[in-house]
Structure formats: structure tokens, C-alpha cells
Amino acid sequence: SSGINAECPLRPGVSQYSGLLAPLSVQAIMNIIDPETATNVNLKDIRVVAKVGGTVEDTRLVNGIVLTQRAQATGVHRVERAKVALIQFCLSPPKSDMDSQVVISDYTQMDRILREERAYILDLCKKIKKSGANVLLIQKSILRDALNDMALHFLTKMKVLVVKDIERDEIDFVSRTLGCRPIATADHMLPEHLGQADLVEEIHVGGGNKVVSITGCQSNAKTCSILVQGSNKLLADEAERSIHDALCVIRCLVKNKNMIAGGGAPEIELSIQLAQYAATLSGVESHCIKAFADALEIIPFTLAENAGLPPINIVTELRNRHAQGEAMAGINVKKCCITNITEENVLQPLLVSISAITLASETVRSILKIDDIVNTSR
Description:
single chain, alpha/beta, 6-stranded mixed β-sheet, 41% helix
């Protein structure tokens, strides 16, 4: 874990919180994999939610689900030993498939419409209550209201915690985490389709904002959520992107557990070794390998340029240090000089360098295979 923490990349603005965000990212990965046998990480099993309120220090790992939607005003904001129903049908009167108007000529017809609407909504709510559900998650609907005032009134009397407007792309994560089945019609409101959780509650995150937390899920799904907080949207989004970058780095280490020095050290060392190998060859092969070696210098060159350092001087000194046998010498951006980069804990996954060089080489090979470009414009 400590080796991974040193590598997790944090962006400007949230880098001072590295002591919190890096271990939290590692713990999130460890919660969903077996470190001994895992060869990959499905980042869809970790849901990162950014919410304005509090500070970045309030960011936390939740072993369950965090929903950004607020609980509806049913008077229930906390449910223990919850039975959760995830429904995909609307608790509102049905609408016709085409636009139509109903003309009412007297109040008895109006009264009949209201009575039938009330009976229809009440029947839906009774089926929900009969299934034993005391927490209701309603998928967002674009055709009609997912929940109307009458349904909310009945659910309030039944003391059911209601969260509406669950996004379509959240359904898979929620159903896997809770171990429940998305329910498409009221006729399928059965106890075996419900998920179970120890606690469902609405919590304050500062700034008047609230989220719904579902913890203690009874399913065996290995999933978790990270609630990212920030004093403003810019900071919260930046922290969310930083955590995603950190999770990707840890995934690289799960795929390939080897790490190498950063700061342009491996690229310049590889460039020198290839140049020496090219000198032992002759003809076209020698020129190709020498050109490949020179191309690798663009990585430390760009790193120095981005750090505001003189790239030609830095790369020349870096080559000199490596030629003298200092294989771990790299560009120290903070000190603006060449140092032993491993002593600064600047490391990177081996898979990153392998992937970059492999993909770049394959791209060049693809371009070289192009004989001619046909111009189709007239």
C-alpha cells in the first residue's frame, strides 16, 4: 500500500490532500479484489460521487451506495434493516401513446376521473407495501412523472423512504450492490426481488446539501462508493478526477505489479542502451534502431519543458549522468535539477511505459503501411 500511495497522481489544487486521497483509493481497490489472485480491476465496481459541501478532507469511502438524489418528503429519513425495492415503473397516472385531450362536461365525470386515479395509485402503493419494502428507489422517467403528489401522500402514510430519479446508468451498480432485481411492473413486486441493507439514511454533507447512504448490503457483491466533497464545484470535480487517476494507476499495478523509476529515467536509459546496440550493427537496421533511440528522448524533453526547465540542457545532463552509470537519475521537477529519482519516491508502473512504447510503435507501423491517400473531396 505504501508503494502505491507514492505513485497516485494528484492534480494541482488537491495535491495537499494526498495523504488522505491516495490511501483511500488503495483501500477502495482492495475492497473489491483479492490482491493475491486478481489480474485486473473493474472500475465500474467503484462509484465515485462528487458533491459540493464541506471540504476535500471530508471525502470518505462508503461500503455500499451513495445516491446524490435527496429523499422525498415522506417524513422518513432513516431506516434500519431496510428492504429496498428498485422499481422502473412510474407511480403516476398512465398516459396514452399519442397526444390527446379529454373534454369533461360536468363535475361527476371529473369526480370519476379523480376516483379512478386515486384507486390506481393506491393499488400500486398497496402492492409495494405488501412486498415488505420500506425503501423505494424509483428510476427516472422522461415520459411522465415518476412520482406524483398522491402517490407520495400514500407512501408517507405507509412510512416508506422514497428516492426518485435514479439514473438509468446507475441501475446496474445499485442492483448488483443490493442484490436486488429491477422491477418493471407492479405485478412483480415480490419479496424475493428486494435487496436488503442494514441502514439507509439521508446525511448532510454541508452547504445545505444532502445525499442518501445505503450501507451494510446483504449481497456478496464486491462494490463500494467514494463520496468526494469540496467547498465548491471546481474543487470537488478536481478531487473526483484525481481519485479516478489514482484508481487507474492502482489498476495498472494490479495488472503488472512491477514498478520503475519515473522522471524520464527509464526512457533515457533505454535510449542510451539502444544507441549502443545500434553501433554494433550496420546498414538500415542500425539507422532504424538509432532513430528509435533518439525518439525516446522526447519524453524527458517534454517533461523538462512542462516543468519550465531548459529542455536541451536538462536532457544533455541527464544523458551524461546515465552514461556515467547513474541508471536512476531523473528529472526532479520540485528541485529543478537531476537527482536520484527513486530516493524522491517518484515511481511509475512498468505497464505505463510498456503500453506507451508499444502503442506508439504500432501507430507508426500502421502509418507506414499506407501506400497512398485517396482524396474524396471535390
